[in-house]
Design a protein that fits this description.
- With about 500 residues, the chain is of the alpha/beta class.
- About 40% of the residues lie in helices and about 10% in strands.
- It is built from 19 helices and 14 strands.
- The chain has a six-stranded parallel β-sheet with strand order 2-3-4-5-6-7. A six-stranded mixed β-sheet has the order 9-14-13-12-10-11, covered by helices on one side. A two-stranded parallel ribbon has the order 1-8.
- The protein is globular, with a radius of gyration of 23 Å.
């Protein structure tokens, strides 16, 4: 049973309830267990907390032994952003690949299977899906995390994802409201600004969130972005106009509102996490996400005390904090009421990710292409990973090609001399150049120019947004860098015959 420390004041308990902190390590530290006993209701998990599914299940059981209704949240989008498979790469393609296929039933199946695996490990809140319309091709932080640049497509797949995830008993947290797709700045580093007019925002950015709300999304995550047409003074996370008047009032949303990570520079570098948290709750946020970078008891204490002090000083209404805490508890009750689901046989659900990755491929120049029979040299032209993706997760096609063609070699290259360095390293081997968002990196495009001028038989695999024109002896666009996307591309390169497709999903 859930218990609270004796003598804990309601105000202090409510302040703890609205926090979603992280921690370091693969077991729960004593301070976290103590805070759960005092009223903390949510815990956020990241890649650093996960070593295996068995370990994760043991960790969530440890948390629930202290508080049986705890919300255990994770940032598991699938595709490029994975925490469950942070060291191997995801078994599921991400949103951009699913959007490229444009089969809403397939999206629902992928989200359901991902949710089933999370639930099996004791995770009941997923900070996904991304409902951002990637209307700015130069976007440095969304990209393949978006279903695409077409509003209607993003809306229907967002709804399908929410439906699939929640059918597995895991609450969806649709993000990043009111839409992070038209930004050229990463909010992990600074405060982005969207200057679109209100009619454009309503037709483009808000449509996927309307679809998510109609599908019953249990949570929505705010974005740390300034949208002057909606609020010229404060970023969405801190804006009453955006969270309360627009999201709750105009869109009629009544579920949990979660902030994006408060230690991101867009907030921490402008308002500070304590003041930012107070302003967020006052604006209408119900849960404060923190812990991606700040993951200790001191952070929890600082934010708890800031909220309590704000209530006592009159800056934050006690009723608003109590309402936020009740919304957290309401979501906890919903997750606790979800029936457990027996795992299907491994072959039934386990292949849906690979099936989706195969269907997402766009292959250009296949006429006359002869599959590889000799181990090639894989030149990975590697950009700096954004913080949401991280640099722990492997990507590319080299591992899968090595499995199919033993002796395959690989190297990573970046910068002005990347093309020449790759040519030198490859020697006489056939080159497979793997890129990620060629259109955003001039050095990458120049490296491909060098490779193709010297070695026209170079194969190009684009694992980001395929905005640049296809080129190379063969060009494969995977629409994401998940492990299964690399496997699907390697099958094409080697002519490997995939097993028969699942007849339940058309063409």
């Amino acid at each position: 049973m859930t218990t609270f420390a004796s003598g804990t004041e309601t105000l202090t308990r409510d302040a703890l309830t609205v926090l979603q902190p992280g921690f370091t390590g693969t077991t729960a530290p004593d301070w976290l267990l103590r805070r759960l006993g005092e009223g903390l209701a949510s815990v956020g998990l990241f890649g650093r907390n996960i070593a295996s599914r068995e370990q994760l299940a043991a960790l969530t059981a440890q948390l629930r032994a202290e508080r049986d209704d705890v919300l255990v949240a994770i940032d598991e989008e699938g595709g490029d952003v994975t925490r469950l498979e942070v060291r191997t790469g995801s078994s599921f393609p991400g949103n951009h690949a699913l959007g490229a296929v444009d089969d809403v039933e397939l999206t629902r199946r992928v989200a359901h299977e991902l949710g089933r695996r999370l639930a099996e490990c004791g995770v009941n809140l997923n900070w996904a899906p991304s409902a951002d319309v990637n209307s700015n091709p130069a976007n440095p932080v969304i990209g393949v995390r978006s279903f695409g640049a077409d509003t209607a497509l993003v809306a229907r797949h967002t709804a399908a994802y929410v439906t699939g995830l929640q059918s597995a008993g895991v609450a969806a947290c649709t993000k990043h409201f009111p839409g992070h797709g038209d930004t050229a700045v990463d909010s992990h580093h600074a405060l982005p600004r969207i200057d679109a007019e209100t009619p454009v925002l309503k037709e483009r950015e808000l449509a996927p969130f309307r679809a998510a709300i109609a599908a019953g999304t249990r949570a929505v995550m705010s974005a740390h972005i300034l949208v002057p047409a909606l609020d010229p003074d404060r970023p969405a996370t801190l804006s009453r106009r955006i969270l309360t008047e627009l999201l709750r009032g105009e869109l009629g949303y009544d579920g949990l509102i979660v902030t994006d990570g408060m230690e991101m520079r867009a907030i921490a570098g402008t308002y500070g996490i304590e003041r930012g948290s107070v302003l967020a709750v006052a604006a209408g946020a119900d849960a404060i996400c923190v812990g991606g970078g700040l993951a200790d008891d001191e952070t929890v204490r600082r934010l708890r005390d800031a909220l309590v002090s704000a209530v006592r000083s009159g800056e934050l209404a006690e009723e608003r904090l109590a309402d936020a805490a009740e919304r957290v508890r309401a979501l906890a009750r919903w997750t606790a009421a979800q029936p457990g689901e027996a795992a299907p046989p491994p072959a039934a659900g386990g292949d849906v990710g690979l099936l989706a990755a195969r269907r997402a491929l766009t292959v250009t120049g296949a006429e006359g292409f002869v599959p590889l029979t000799e181990p090639p040299y894989v030149a990975a032209l590697t950009p700096v990973a954004n913080i949401a993706v991280g640099d722990e997760t492997p990507w590319g096609v080299a591992a899968e090609l090595l499995r199919l063609l033993p002796g395959t070699q690989t190297g990573g290259f970046a910068g002005r001399d990347a093309g020449r360095a790759a040519l030198s390293a490859a020697g006489g081997r056939r080159i497979v150049a793997v890129v990620r968002d060629e259109h955003r990196h001039a050095w990458m495009a120049a490296a491909l120019d060098t490779l193709l001028a010297e070695r026209p038989d170079t194969i190009v695999v684009e694992m980001g947004v395929p905005q640049a024109a296809p080129r190379g002896a063969l060009h494969i666009a995977t629409h994401g860098a998940a492990r299964v996307c690399g496997r699907a591309a390697a099958e094409v390169l080697t002519g490997a015959q995939p097993r028969r497709e699942d007849p339940a999903t058309p063409g």
